[in-house]
Design a protein that fits this description.
With 738 residues, this protein is an alpha/beta fold. It contains 17 helices and 39 strands.
């Protein structure tokens, strides 16, 4: 046997970076720079404000309570060069706006009070506060992204910001994958004795794509020398790297190593590792070829240890794609060798996690046989066990975090928020005409060919689940139950093994709840804003209150628990029903959640005085049913437990979603997909990313992933409702999906 590092060094030496190409920077995400990106301009080009607030002279603001005269406003992108600030003066200024003459500090809008043409500051303001200096990010001529850099969505943004409309990158490697063996079959027909499904090839193709290469399916070949030779030669001519699965071990029918030795310059190795000991590697013509073992786990581990670095080298990367961390062992990692160990390096499939302090922990993912691929699917790391010796609980183990092994890579924005919750609007149409949502005559509905198909929705959702670890999906609208054949979509998404919920107005729920439950839906949220029949008609312009209440009961009967009832609480509209709704939830065994009225009405009639705050809601309910607050996590609702335990089972709490007065932006983990395929990082986002357009133009998953990451990368810190610079989104709630 040969050492692992010797084998890795040999395989890595088979490849050199591919040729470079020039392309628009927006198309280059996921590729590696083959030339430096140099700033054409300074970034920022001028001194500008880091905050929405007030530009002033620090010498005028040395004491709390200072009042200054407002002499103008400076907007981002439209600099008023004549604007000057003198002693005792201030100017309204927006984030990114050029600093006017005379200004040497900015105070944020939240720390000041306005009264007509004067502003009073709460605190002293130090010089240079909240001012970004020209060239702070980059100066003209500076190398901002060096050759060899993997171009991430953030890198695309950096290159664009410095004027690099086109970049030179190493082209994406084409990697062919072939599986061999008489025992392999495809499809879902029943297996005969001795047969195995060809799981390696699709799994390896998916892993190749995750590594940033273009996967090429070379198919399955039986144990026939002529046919194996033909496929390997064809792959070597059309691809930059060929990976074969099976036929490199010690058996009489292990033909791949023999054929490769005849076709090219090959080396057959027994590597001192477990799993994945057998390996063949070399070149056919000038194309690297790596023969992986046939055992399912061994083939994946071998790809990750040997194939991933080689693909990275071909793609132009100069770093090692394998990330190593030290992790505290939870529960112990069992030994794999008798006595004092052996001469192999053992790799244990593990599940790792990192806490808020950056500390890693690791535990075994389950059974470790080289044929047990299910454990690999549950793992997101490989723990290194030299000699196969047991690692006890509390010890530290080295863990390899490999992109192609991990079940997920975190979808994180610039504020460190990890996103795992997807809201999907399946239609913009609705059978209600709620006064706070849309006009009486309805909206201009999307043409049906502009609405995402079930297959398009499934593709996007699968990408978010498989690549980024999304674990929660909620279907919304419009009214989702008006979408024809909705249970078919539910069945598709249920196969993703996520928490799958649906928000509905409940009018047709009594009819469809059993079918939705049978299709795999987990739970239901019902929107209901009044329990008074006449007011219901006034608010929804429909006489369907009885049908909605029947729908709530039908959802519970179908097992769609927990059933939650969402109430938009509006001052002067339904504030007199807060206690009634609490009593309703206690009687029906459902959790009632009150939602602060948000500025998403189509008529744009929202005003701050219409908002019933969380404090108001909790105080009023507590007058009848005392409540105690519980800690909120990533969920949008603050939860309050009834002191007396509640009424019927399922009614122990009420919730309040305080999006206006106490927003949860800092822990927001969700993105939204509109019915027409636009991805939004926030309900109130001013920009959207067109995934439908990409899909229908033939984009692959890498292009979709780059677009998704770019969308999330641009997510704001918060939506700014109730602040002077808040801007309403151009779409109403029915168009966005609630």
């Amino acid at each position: 046997m040969i050492p692992l590092e010797e084998a890795r060094s040999y395989v890595l030496g088979l490849g050199t970076p591919l040729e470079s190409v020039e392309m628009p920077v927006g198309e280059a995400a996921g590729l590696v720079l083959a030339a430096d990106v140099v700033a054409a301009d300074a970034v920022p080009g001028d001194d500008n404000s880091a905050m929405d607030g007030w530009g002033l002279r620090a010498a005028d603001a040395t004491e709390p309570g200072t009042t200054l005269r407002v002499v103008g406003a400076q907007m981002a992108g439209v600099a008023d060069e004549a604007l000057r600030v003198g002693p005792g003066e201030a100017v309204r200024i927006m984030t990114g706006a050029t600093i006017p003459a005379g200004v040497d500090a900015v105070e944020m809008v939240e720390r000041a009070d306005v009264d007509g043409d004067s502003v009073t500051l709460h605190l002293p303001v130090p010089a240079a506060q909240f001012i970004r200096r020209a060239g702070e990010d980059a100066v003209a001529g500076q190398r901002v992204l060096p050759i060899g850099t993997l171009l991430t969505p953030a890198g695309v943004g950096v290159a664009t910001s410095v004027g690099a409309a086109r970049v030179t990158v190493t082209r994406r490697p084409r990697v062919g994958v072939v599986s061999t063996g008489d025992e392999l079959v495809s499809g879902d027909r029943p297996l005969r004795s001795g047969e195995l499904r060809d799981s390696n090839r699709p799994g390896l193709l998916a892993a190749v794509a995750r590594l940033g290469a273009e996967p090429v399916d070379l198919g399955w070949v039986p144990d026939d020398e002529a046919r194996i030779s033909e496929v390997l030669l064809r792959g070597a001519e059309s691809c930059d790297l060929v990976l074969s699965s099976g036929g490199v071990s010690m058996g009489d029918a292990d033909l791949v190593k023999v054929i490769l030795a005849r076709l090219g310059e090959m080396r057959w190795m027994q590597v001192a590792i477990k799993p994945a000991k057998p390996l063949a590697a070399g070149v056919v013509g000038s194309t690297p070829v790596v023969g992986l073992p046939g055992n399912p786990v061994s083939s994946h581990v071998s790809l990750l240890l040997f194939g991933a670095p080689l693909i990275a080298r071909l793609a132009g990367r100069r770093d090692d794609p394998i990330v190593r961390v030290g992790a505290l062992v939870s529960g112990g990692l069992p030994g794999h060798a008798a006595g004092g160990g052996d001469e192999k390096t053992h790799f244990t499939r593990v599940q790792t996690s990192c806490d808020a302090n950056g500390e890693w922990t690791v535990r075994s993912a389950g059974a470790q046989g080289s044929h047990q691929l299910s454990t690999m699917a549950l793992a997101n790391g490989l723990a290194v066990q030299p000699g196969g010796v047991e690692v006890p609980a509390g010890a530290t183990a080295t863990v390899l975090l490999l992109p192609s092994l991990s079940r997920m890579q975190e979808l994180t924005d610039t504020f460190g928020r990890v996103h795992r919750d997807l809201r999907i609007s399946v239609t913009d149409r609705c059978n209600f005409r709620c006064t706070y949502c849309m006009p009486a005559e309805g909206m201009d509905w999307l043409p049906r060919d502009e609405v995402l198909s079930f297959e398009e929705i499934e593709r996007i959702a699968s990408l978010l689940v498989d690549r980024y670890g999304f674990d929660s999906i909620r279907l919304t609208g419009g009214e989702p139950t008006v979408r024809a054949h909705l249970p078919q979509l539910v069945a598709k998404l249920a196969r993703l093994d996520v928490d799958l919920a649906l928000t509905t107005n409940g009018a047709t729920l009594a009819l469809v709840a059993p079918a939705l439950a049978d299709a795999g839906l987990d739970r239901i949220n019902v929107s209901l804003d009044t329990l008074h029949p006449a007011r219901f008609v006034e608010m929804t312009r429909r006489d369907s209150l009885a049908a909605v209440i029947d729908g709530v009961r039908a959802a519970k009967a179908a097992g769609l628990d927990p059933v939650k009832v969402n109430v938009v609480a509006m001052a002067g509209v339904n504030e007199d029903e807060l206690i009634d709704f609490a009593a309703f939830g206690r009687a029906e065994g459902v959790e009632v959640r009150f939602i602060e009225f948000m500025p998403l009405d189509a008529d744009q009639a929202w005003k701050r005085s219409s908002v019933l705050t969380q404090a108001d809601i909790v105080e009023r309910i507590s007058e009848r049913f005392p409540l105690v607050a519980e800690r909120r996590g990533h969920a949008p609702a603050d939860r309050f437990a009834y002191v007396d335990g509640g009424g019927a089972p399922g009614s122990s709490h009420v919730g309040v979603i305080a999006s206006v007065t106490e927003p949860f932006c800092g822990s927001c983990d969700r993105v939204r997909l509109t019915a027409d395929g636009k991805l939004r990082s926030c309900l109130f986002a001013m920009t959207e990313t067109d995934l439908r357009g990409l899909i229908r133009a033939g984009a692959d998953d890498e292009a979709l992933a780059a677009a998704i990451e770019g969308c999330v990368h641009g997510k704001w810190a918060g939506h700014r409702i109730d602040q002077v610079n808040f801007i309403r989104p151009s779409r109403s709630m029915s168009q966005l999906g609630g």
